[in-house]
């Protein structure tokens, strides 16, 4: 199989603004609820990192109104769109698995349906790294897989667009997150069609 990260980058580049259309057709209110929950927990002027920011809507637009926000995405096209959509926020093209930040750099980290685009073998180490990036009492909100699966969709959203995912099951994610040091504040199954994902709200206790 082609390099999974190249598949993800090229897929989101090819989709461009169609990814936003897809999001709007699913459940945008779900995102609003998650973002409101996180915002209510963060201190004033918090520093927030988003892994997999796409075009900046709605997450960057919402969080940058209250907080110092940095969005990361592997797709240059999505980052270009994010900079146009949310000019007051900061964005960077990068592979989330190879990012380097100082310890205690952020009060909050958010990753909605993005870590599951990484090869599964890289995900536990990223959770440990995120824990190090967070300040004491910081929060990590993420959406992971619910059932184990790794594969490629050859016609995702747009015919001919390849996309790669790699999931563990919810119990495995729970174990990895606890092993990384997180306290689980809330977790729940997020139903989507005939399957779904897992919502985690986590905290780095002081």
From TrEMBL:
GO terms for biological process: methylation. Pfam families: Methyltransf_23. The keyword Chloroplast does not apply. Keywords: Methyltransferase, Transferase. GO terms for molecular function: methyltransferase activity. CDD domains: AdoMet_MTases. It comes from the Bacteria. This is Methyltransferase domain-containing protein. It comes from Spirosoma arboris.
């Amino acid at each position: 199989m082609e390099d999974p990260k190249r598949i993800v980058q090229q897929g989101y580049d090819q989709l461009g603004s169609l990814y936003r259309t897809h999001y709007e057709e699913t459940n945008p209110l779900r995102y609003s609820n998650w973002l409101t929950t996180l915002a209510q927990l963060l201190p004033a002027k918090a520093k927030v990192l988003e892994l997999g920011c796409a075009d900046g809507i709605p997450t960057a637009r919402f969080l940058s109104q209250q907080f110092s926000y940095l969005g990361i995405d592997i797709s240059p096209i999505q980052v270009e769109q994010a900079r146009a959509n949310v000019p007051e926020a900061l964005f960077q093209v990068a592979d989330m698995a190879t990012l380097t930040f100082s310890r205690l750099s952020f009060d909050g980290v958010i990753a909605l349906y993005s870590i599951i685009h990484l090869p599964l073998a890289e995900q536990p180490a990223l959770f440990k790294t995120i824990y190090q990036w967070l300040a004491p009492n910081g929060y990590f909100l993420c959406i992971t897989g619910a059932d184990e699966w790794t594969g490629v969709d050859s016609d995702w959203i747009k015919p001919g667009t390849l996309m790669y995912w790699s999931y563990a099951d919810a119990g495995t994610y729970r174990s990895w997150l606890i092993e990384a040091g997180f306290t689980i504040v809330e977790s729940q199954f997020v139903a989507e069609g005939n399957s779904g994902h897992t919502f985690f709200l986590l905290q780095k206790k002081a």
